[in-house]
Design brief:
oxidoreductase activity, acting on the CH-NH group of donors, NAD or NADP as acceptor; FMN binding; single chain; Pnp Oxidase, Chain A; about 200 residues; about 10% helix; three-stranded antiparallel beta sheet; seven-stranded antiparallel beta sheet; Split_barrel_FMN-bd
């Protein structure tokens, strides 16, 4: 099968995000100018540079009470900071609960019963029990083609790692099993790993 996205795929559901899979989940926490906190998952998320460390996520829809975007991007525009909370398999239900389309100003930490803590380098909340948290200073928001498509880039200014995930000096993902997004309503979990030596190493 071949299709041109501009012409449509003719399938019951869009296969695009099932093809680009698995995708790590950026569980983004923010605080607005009014002091209200927000927490939402984004599956268009990844690390994008080492030095300085940088990450990005994309928001691809909007809410009537936020104009051209959603709560996360709206609050990042106000504050210039955000935190990426890493999602473990054990937190799958809590993460999913924070994807609900709640009114602006609703605190998803409270709604989903998630313990929060303050970040160290930025004025922002974080998921206290997450395997890791990346505190980020906004570097740029890029408007992408299409309606309400924004890519948010940030420099990591602080890193939290849960002690039980550090084994023999290595941050071991098998200690917490990262949750990843697939297509449709599907997810997957990392429960095994293997190493490959690069040519020339």
């Amino acid at each position: 099968m071949f299709y041109r996205p501009a012409d449509g795929h003719g399938l019951p559901h869009n296969p695009f995000n099932a093809i680009v899979t698995p995708r790590p989940i950026g569980w983004i926490s923010t605080r607005g100018a009014d002091g209200r906190d927000n927490l939402a998952p984004y599956s268009f998320f990844n690390a994008c540079a080492y030095t300085p460390p940088q990450v990005m996520f994309s928001s691809t829809s909007s809410k009537d009470d936020r104009g051209d975007t959603k709560d996360s991007v709206a609050q990042i525009r106000e504050s210039g900071v955000f935190c990426v909370n890493i999602v473990e398999f054990a937190m799958r239900d809590a993460m999913n609960a924070t994807s609900a389309p709640l009114p602006a100003g609703t605190d998803e930490f409270i709604e989903a019963g998630i313990e929060k803590a303050e970040c160290e380098t930025i004025a922002c909340p974080r998921v206290a029990l997450a395997p890791a948290n990346l505190e980020c200073r906004l570097t740029q928001i890029v408007a992408l083609e299409g309606t309400s498509n924004f890519a948010v880039f940030g420099e990591v200014t602080g890193v939290h790692m849960r002690d039980d995930c550090l084994i023999d000096g290595i941050f071991d993902v098998l200690a917490y099993n990262p949750l990843s997004r697939m297509g449709y309503r599907d997810y997957t979990v990392v429960r095994e790993k293997f190493s490959l030596k690069r040519p020339g190493d």
